Amino acid sequence: MAQAKKVIITGIPGSGSTDFCNRYAAWPELKVRTYNMGDMLLKMAQGDPNKPPITVENLLNLHPGFLDTLRDRAFDLALSMIAAEESACDRILIDMHGQFFWNDVLTNTYDWSYLTGIDADMFVTIIDKPSTIKSRQMATAHGRLQNHDFRDLLMWQNAEVNIASGWAASFGKPIYVLPAKQDPATIESLLKNAFLIYFQMPMTDANSEANAMITAFKEKLLAIGQEINGLPTPLIDPRTIDIETGEGLSKREKRMIRIQTVHRDLNWYIGEATDQVAYYPPGSTLSKGVSDESTRGFETGKNIFVVYPSSHISPFMDIATKVFSSETEFFEFFPKYLRKRIKSLQRVTTT
């Protein structure tokens, strides 16, 4: 067996990164080994039989020098286990945080020497909306102790993406920001091939009927990849993280949620995609969000395909690689295109 592909998966506490790793590890055709660095750090802190155990809610109150020592011991152990197991596994997942946010202070969780030792093939940061993150955090003793507000969580999550992006840039490896509910098959596809679709649709005014048509179109897209490549067509659907509509939000929180949503879609999702597919259900009007996303894709070198069932085409759609007047026309074109595109974006090495 060839050496395992190694993926560092980050996410702030409550983001769903561990649940994502667990779903990935359950892949029936692969032997996947997961190292949860937070759990390993806690076990190190509780491992001295001559001292009272340190509870998880007190762990980050320890002296920074002692925490660094515990981190080093945890990573030393993980690296030795990875070296012993990587030839017997298909995938190795390192589940870790880039930073802790404790008592209003951001602290790095990593040491460059250990990241170098892992020699990851890919970096992934898992994200979610603040209310879901807060709900997960408040289910834990240390989360209740800190009680972060939505702005804290959004800034922390933004910093987490920036940290992982810096790692990837330093090591010359790809970085992907994915929603917590993303199918792990997306990573399997991306390990072999850089092809990734950002799926666009008019969202603000879409009713339940329009959403059903959008979902049906997406399912057809996924099925074509499964037929051609043995994996669902890799795509990111911004609806996977639904719009935050919680009661009692301040004006400042609402503004930040809106700004972060736009930042996520334009800079993270579109930034990592190779292609964009915009689908307008019949009867839809032109969407400013879809138009802005298409413009961003055009300006960053993406192939953009628009399905717009209307005879009145805006001249601004001329930036698209191709505009289709019907779903039928698009799905007659897409399989052949996908085969060619996948071949052109193949990674240099695969397992």
UniProtKB/TrEMBL annotation:
InterPro entries from the UniProt entry: P-loop_NTPase
Domain of life the protein comes from: Bacteria
Any Pfam family: AAA_17
Designated name of the protein: Uncharacterized protein
Species this chain originates from: Candidatus Buchananbacteria bacterium RIFCSPLOWO2_01_FULL_39_33
